[in-house]
Amino acid sequence: MIKxxxxxxxxxxxxxxxxxxxxxxxxxxxxxxxxxPISMIEEAMxxxxxxxxxxxxxxxxxxxxxLPKNLHWHLIGHLQRNKVKYxxxxxxxxxxxxxxxxxxxxxQEAIKKGVTANILVEVNVAQEESKFGVSVEExxxxxxxxxxxxxxxxxxxxxxxxxxxxxxxxxxxxNKLKQLSVDIKTKNIDNVSxxxxxxxxxxxxxxxxxEGATLVRVGTGIFGExxxxx
Length: 230
What we know:
It is a single chain. The chain is 40% helix and 19% strand. The protein has 230 residues and is of the alpha/beta class. Helix 5 links the parallel strand 4 (91-97) and strand 5. It is globular and about 45 Å long. The two termini are 21 Å apart.
């Protein structure tokens, strides 16, 4: 099932790239494996996937220890400061930075462990009460502060768009994030590259790709419905 699902997702990514006049190599698929067992991750690996996304620090750490070290783990869920020490040398990219205090904690732990932490700033473009992330207006000032920290590198932006029936409804959200990243890039801030746009999930990743996503986070479309009954 996973192999067939991945083939369908791959085809949709290719078609979205074609519509947008983009090269397929510009978009990386992250298989969101939260709540999924090791056996399902191994099935995805057999189909060629090496990028996996997890919501929880504990789950990412456990899977990191059990699986081959050539995999790239993305922390896409909210990160608490007291959990930073467990993740800073395991995640290839932390997608969910939404405060200077969190960035400072990451910087301190990265210095201790002798690594550079790659991060994305999470932007709550739709200003949903239930979501984490900074507002569009707060993003540049936060990035300017983070850029002064040691052992931390801002690679771009992330957003979680609203859950909608029609993916078209999120086009404006994705377009706004893309414009924001372009604006920030022109500032040429040290330690800030803005090459990564993490946006789009199972329900709307094609629209996200058309609007410039470089990372799409697909869980249900690959693994089926989530299982919270473990």
